[in-house]
Amino acid sequence: MPDATSTVSAQQPQQSSSTTNTTTTNTTTNTTPNTTTNTTTNTTPNISSISTPLLTTKTVAALIAVFAITVALFIPFRTTLSTTLLSKPTTATTAALRAMFTTPANMKITKRPCGERGLADHDWLYSYHTFSFASYHDPRHQSFGPLRVINEDRVKPGTGFGTHSHAEFLIFSYIVNGCLEHKDSMGNLENLRRGEVQFTSAGTGIRHSEYNRNTDEEVHFLQIWAKPNVRGLKPHYETKKWTDAHKENKLLRIMEYTDRLGDKKGAESPIGLQADLSMDASILSPGKKVEHEVVAQGPRKIFLQLIMSGRKQPKEGGAKIKVGDTVLGEGDSAYVSGVTGPAKFEVESVGDKPAEFLLFDMGTEDA
């Protein structure tokens, strides 16, 4: 699994102190003859006779003054510079400098292009696999943290996944377009549409089916699996719905680790997970930015997935997002490592259409 990494040194000025020695010349004539004659020749140079020092007192004082003036001028300039770059990145240069202020120093980003994902085309199902799944196997892409499956599925009208079983997985579906019917052994039967998220904690075991009952529209959704940090959980099912307005130009928390969820309850509160994992969703307009705050302490892994607008990645245009210096197109994803919380970083929409993407923030232990 690729390790999904990008210093400031401060110099303490050294102060010098100088002591000025003044020599007084005595103009009184000594009339007493010197009766002692020294006949020994001294070949050792008299250091005190060197009359020109390397740095005079005035030179040292001048250097200290210049240093003090430079520091006094630089501090407000740096503050103004950083403030300007953080608020108005108008050129590629200022944008790059701005990233230095907003990206964790050791953050490493590894891009996973859309075309490198596994692809299953079964006529009724067109599915991209981020991680090894079914007949697609890539030892470099088995899992990432607790994430085990991210499949971007398109199911034709009148078809779907027949009844099958799961155990010991957290399974959720993020509906992009169309309508998906869910039916399970716990008695749940629902039709899920855009904006809805369906969550199943399979626990000790469930059986379910997923169908597209429409006659003329395919359903497009992301199927995501994660490993819980507790085994033998009681099976659980729930759904929640958020509109596009909830996600426009912001990061909306869809799922959250129960240990961090606290007392958040209600129709719009995140779905609780028994895993050190959170998931945010955003629909980011061109030119807009959002800031993700890594709240959890210690090393973290981040994964981003840009959702596709069609079956194929656009050759030109389309949605694009930028993280650090890495640009992702539709269907691309990114492994991010080297982040230690608490920390912050930005995601910017740099394409020519709104970018809908998912951001996962998780612990470093692999599934």
Short description:
By secondary structure, the chain is mostly beta strands.
Description:
The chain is mostly beta strands and 367 residues long. It has two domains: 56-100; 103-362, Jelly Rolls. It has four helices and 20 strands. The strands form three sheets. Strands 1, 13, 14, 15, 16, 17, 18, 19 and 20 form a nine-stranded mixed sheet that branches. The protein has a seven-stranded antiparallel sheet with strand order 2-3-4-11-6-9-12, with no helix packed on it. The chain has a four-stranded antiparallel sheet with strand order 5-10-7-8, with no helix packed on it. A hairpin with a 2-residue loop joins strand 17 (320-323) and strand 18. It is elongated and about 90 Å long. The termini are close together. The model is unreliable at 3-52, 74-89 and 96-101 (pLDDT under 50). Belongs to the pirin family.
List the helices and strands and how they pair.
Layout: H1 57-87, H2 92-102, E1 108-112, E2 118-121, E3 125-129, E4 147-155, E5 160-166, E6 170-177, E7 179-184, E8 189-193, E9 196-201, E10 206-211, E11 219-226, E12 236-241, H3 244-247, E13 252-257, H4 258-261, E14 271-273, E15 277-284, E16 289-306, E17 320-323, E18 326-329, E19 333-349, E20 355-362
Parallel strand pairs: 13-14
Antiparallel strand pairs: 1-19, 2-3, 3-4, 4-11, 5-10, 6-9, 6-11, 7-8, 7-10, 9-12, 13-15, 15-20, 16-19, 16-20, 17-18, 17-19
